Structure formats: structure tokens, C-alpha cells
Amino acid sequence: MSNAEQIEYWNGAAGETWARMQARMDKALTPVTAALLSAAAPAPGEDVLDIGCGSGETTLALAAAVGDDGCATGVDISEPLLARARERAAELLLDIDFELADAATLVDPIGFDLLVSRFGVMFFADPVAAFGNLHNLAVPGGRLCFACWQQPTENTWATLPIDALAGLIPVDPRYDPHAPGPFAFADPDRVRAILGTAGWQDVALQPVTFTMVMGEGDDPVGNAVHFALRIGPAARSVREAGPDAEARARVLLADAFAAHVDGDTVGLPAAVWLVTAHRPA
Ligand SMILES: C[S@@+](CC[C@H](N)C(=O)[O-])C[C@H]1O[C@@H](n2cnc3c(N)ncnc32)[C@H](O)[C@@H]1O
Prior knowledge:
The protein is of the alpha/beta class and 281 residues long. The protein has a domain of 194 residues: Rossmann fold (3-Layer(aba) Sandwich), CATH 3.40.50.150. Strands 1, 2, 3, 4, 5, 6, 7 and 8 form an 8-stranded mixed beta sheet that branches. Helix 2 packs parallel to helix 6. 43% of the residues are buried. It binds S-adenosylmethionine. The site of S-adenosylmethionine (SAM) has 22 residues, from helix 1 and strand 2.
């Protein structure tokens, strides 16, 4: 099995949209980034790899943490997202290596002290093989720290748009909760089994909950509809259903979000696992 399907997906409309929505996404995910960096604890002088770095928010933060004596590298399969990451590093005059590569097969002769990911490790076709390769990329004693989504039932930001569009977008009867995708690592036992088989030790999962700001400003509902039609599982389904579906989806989503307005925001429950492990010394 290869990651070809994901490479096609993240280099198509999804990657372009994520790149355009970078600032908005990073703002919505601020609580995750803070918790992830705190758990990862990058230290000055360390060599760090950001897996599935996307448009580089966490790589930029890691580069700042490791300083001039350390090195932060971002790896991703998406050209459009890497282009945005490189643009941001250039704006900040930072010399960061953003590499177009599949993390499942990446080779590095030196090795990393720390491997980090914000939602970039749930898309591997063969997760055991991929985490085995990541294990080989870590120096002995090297740490792994990543954020992944908990079950959809704990993530209303993802299920509310899907439920609102139930009449418009058919539910896929072949749905496989373990298939590569945002919720592939929701089951803690599965995560422990994959990482343990791949050689990682002391696998621990810490729950983090937060409110995902879907919409804000003068028109928080309209803003949330805009967001949901671009990012998340519902966005993918609407995109694949064609342009006529989008107009109807707008109405259905606006109705659903209207019930969740609080002042000038629409916020919905979100829950992630912070997963930590290390390579035996
Ligand atoms: C949900 S996005 C998260 C991006 C970024 N980490 C963030 O938090 O904004 C998932 C990312 O993982 C990347 N990705 C998926 N499979 C990958 C693989 N096998 N190797 C490297 N990157 C991968 C995608 O291209 C995408 O940028």
C-alpha cells in the first residue's frame, strides 16, 4: 500500500484551500498548538522534525524554541502547503528546511531528537510501517509528540456540519473508522498498538478539550458557514458533490450554526489526544 491517494488529495483542492485558510486555521487551533508545544518541550539546540507540517505554524514555533544551535525541519507531501510554509519562513527571515517528502519513507542520516506533529500522522496507508520509519528517524532516546483527534462524538465541530447536511450528502456505507483520515487515531488502544508494534516505548495519551471557533465577527454564522465549507469532513463531501450542493449546504449550515451563536462567535466542542512516546535509548 502507498500514500498515493493522500498525495493526490493534499495536492489538489484540499491543499490549496488549507493554504489559503492558513491564518484562520492556525487561530482556531491555537489551544492545540500551545498544548502540543508544552508536551513536546523542544529545547535549545535540538534537531526537530515536524511531520505533515502543512503551512508551517508548528515548524515556525519549533524553530524559535530550538534557536540558532538547533534545527527545525518540516516535511509534507503537499506542494501548496509547503509553498505557504516557505513563504512564511522567508517573511520572518528564518532559514527552515521544508521538504517535499512522504514521512513514511523519509530517510535522514543524522536523526532527530524530537518528532512533532499537529494532525499530520493520521493519513498513512500503513501506519505501523510509517511509525516504524519515524522510529528509525529518531535518535536513541528521541521523543515523539503529536496531536490527533478523539472520536467524532467528542468533536461537534466536525459532526454538526455533517449532521446538518445529512439530507444532502449520503452517508458512505463503507465508512471505516480506521481508514486514513482525521479520525483514524481516535481509538487509544489502536494508537498504543500501532506505536508499540513500531517500536515506540512508554506511549501515553493525554486528553485536551477546547472550543473550536468556527465563526466570529459581525456575521459569525456566515463566517462559520464559510469555514465549514472549506475545512473539515463536511467541506470534502460538499466539494465532491459539486457546485449545486454548495448553495443548499449554505442554507442548511447557517440554520445549524445559528443555534450556537454566543456573542460574536460560533464555537463548538473539540477534543484531541496528545500522544507522547520515545525511542528506547
Ligand atoms: C490536517 S493537515 C495538518 C497540517 C499541519 N500540521 C497543521 O496543523 O496545520 C495534514 C497534513 O499532513 C500531510 N500529510 C499527509 N500524509 C503525509 C505523509 N505521508 N507524509 C507527510 N505529510 C503528510 C498533509 O499534506 C497535510 O499537510
